[in-house]
Specification:
Number of strands: 0
Low-confidence stretches: none
Structural class: mainly alpha
Oligomer: single chain
Mean pLDDT: 87
Helix content: over 70%
Largest sheet: none
Length: about 70
């Protein structure tokens, strides 16, 4: 329910919504978006690490030995 609708119903309920429920909803939406963005960051980091692992697995033992010696 929006703040404007709350004021139409009752001034007391409107003030309550404006001072308590509105900021609480804003904070909860920030938490939701932060978690969503953290999920995307973790997903792409896993993707990058899997690419590194796949590249290491496709190396031949000889090329790995020369890379370690060089």
């Amino acid at each position: 329910m929006s703040v404007i609708t709350s004021f139409m119903l009752s001034p007391v309920f409107g003030v309550l919504t404006l001072l308590i429920i509105g900021p609480l909803g804003f904070i909860l939406s920030l938490i939701y978006w932060r978690l969503l963005m953290e999920f995307f960051v973790a997903f792409f980091r896993i993707h990058d690490q899997l690419n590194v692992i796949a590249q290491k697995m496709t190396e031949t033992p000889v090329s790995a030995m020369t890379a370690a010696q060089g």
